[in-house]
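ok so i was messing around last nite and threw this chain in just to see what happens. nothing serious, just curious
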Amino acid sequence: MAAITAQMVKELRGATGAGILDCKTALNENNGDFDKAVEYLREKGLAAAAKKADRDAHEGIIGTYVHHGSKVAAMVELNCETDFVARTEQFQELARDIAMHIVASNPEYVAREEVPADVKEREIAIYKAQAQGTGKPENILERIAQGKLEKWYGDVCLMEQEYFKDSDKNVKDVLVENIASLGENIQIRRFSRLQIG
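result:
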């Protein structure tokens, strides 16, 4: 078994934001393999976040960001379980970062569950019509339309958008990481984006 050094723990902590003991455990469990330790911590974070998802989140803050020149701005209601967590620097920075992401990426909905049925049906009809000329059978056209709908969700739903600070993650991944490190359920309740003109 590989010897786990303090430097290895420090690097893993820097990359994941996980606690020192969690990083040490992850490295021990994965024989010092950095990439496997990162994956181990992500899975652990997902499991922890899933357990917290049903808990009430009625505290929180309004995060804001006004872009240079004051031509575009965003506000986001970010909720957590306690006022204590809402006042932490990490939570407040997360709220500001999400507001900044909203300015940059211009989502229309928080999550796919918010997309009205008629809007979804219209998108599917458009994608099917685009695929009609290919001569493929109906069931294939349906799959093509569903695939395009998934991509569309990634463009218009905040939780599924590629995170502006790290293209390897989406906004939901960032939320899950913060749920794991802060130990509370965190939810984006709503947002508003304003742009001059």
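not much to say yet. The two ends are 62 Å apart (CA to CA).
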